């Protein structure tokens, strides 16, 4: 009896050791993640359009592929892998065609300047080119039938030949105009000519275009290449009964995005980005959802009592809306039947829901979902009330389900100055969840109007899983200015755009040290865009960080305001223009505190970045070089702010940042790895010993 009990104990110990462990996520695997930028149901509800995006290493580009998913047969059909993403593909009214743009906008013969849009026919499974001319397309929308499309294009300056290659900044860069055409064609008879009819010219760029048969209107949003005057971002319509009249739907100094029409075409829904009023009409707020009654112009706000940010929505078949609402680090699904009703929460999985769409003819819904423990895929559910039972209809990121992703938890602390509670995410190294005395990498999100979320989006600017695989505890703070914590929390950085969120972050680091979670002598910091702003600021405020990673960060905000494409953001955050509040521009600028820096700093920037001017990185590099601080600057050719042209650039960025961390951040990590290896070898030896020992016991029973 004693031997049997002893054997049972040995078998239990052996079973604990024999649990299959997942492999470590490799550096190359990390960068082969697939995302889903677009989902759209056909009008019949029988098909779902899916766009995937993944790196194409052999072509030095990103591959944007369009797929057709058959709901009933649960099959996926390839349409094109050469999708141009500046304009979203659109279903025809009948659901028999899809119109889209290709990267090869101009025809195959390079000598011809005529461009095409492309029509995919579900019936014949063919792609038909439709010639549209040599202007650059801006937006398109189907009419009320499958034979005509409204197309907005950028006007060509006929007098440009007088200026040769000379640029008139205000006229050539900012004050661009658009032309709206109607394109008529017969997809069933390609021998018939395409007819192109002028609707009218407008004195601004068009961002999105919609047609509604209710009152025969063409609705569109205006835009500008530079965000300095929010009057440039409004909603307009043309009544086809009098196309010479251009009517304004809004005059609210907010940026209207994600336009959708109600099923009956009588209401226009849109998300609003309240961004930095020039006329001081309002403070910045989180994203909101509104609708306009096209009959009387009344604007109604949805989710009015929701304290978070509304990141997306779709219109229900019964006229209500499904809302993607962010609270803290989670984005969940809510619904609202009428604007006067409270939001209804739909119980689902913890994590992030995005790109939600619903079928008008059915109650089915599709969305993209991920969490920090589950990779991104597209899901489908027949009824939103059964959200927890939704099934994945893609399997693009299966590899990541077989890898040891880091365990993460939400962490809270207080700013010691005003006792504000701040929240963030802690990503633990493998097999070290809840461990103590860990080396720390602070990764700061951009924005500032964004947040670190319970969402798995593996990319060059979201690389916490790679850092933890190298032994770092990664801390992602949702500092003041982040979304998901209320409008007041977001607006509290005004006039203190770096010092207040900077103090939030430093207080978080202090608390991690007090809690024994972090080794105070092994600290690193880094961030991209606004995260780069804060990284540059923090290394002027403390010498505690051994290493810094500054990506697309600024150091002087007078010159940044003068050169960037969103100057309204800076003038709002700093409480006025540089000549109005010069003391704030000086006090809240790293360049004037650079002599305090002692941290080896790695810097990256895009050659053509106009969001955060490339010159800011050169200023930082030169200043640190003069101060004899170890510094390295990498510039990526032809890239803008988002490094979206060549995937190798993002991969090289992270590769070099990891090298910089290893060189300056934590020299003892190699010893930690050796100890881990020794412990693993001991574990395997113990398992083998238990196996043979139990075999001997069994033979002697």
Automatic annotation (TrEMBL):
**SUPFAM superfamilies xrefs:** alpha/beta-Hydrolases (SSF53474), DPP6 N-terminal domain-like (SSF82171)
Q: Which GO terms describe its molecular function?
A: serine-type endopeptidase activity
UniProt xrefs under Pfam families: Peptidase_S9 (PF00326)
Q: Which domain of life is it from?
A: Eukaryota
Q: Which GO terms describe its biological process?
A: proteolysis
Record's signal peptide: 1-18
Q: Which UniProt keywords apply?
A: Hydrolase, Signal
Q: Which residues form the Peptidase S9 prolyl oligopeptidase catalytic domain?
A: 466-665
Q: What is this protein called?
A: Peptidase S9 prolyl oligopeptidase catalytic domain-containing protein
Q: What is the species listed in this Swiss-Prot or TrEMBL entry?
A: Adineta steineri
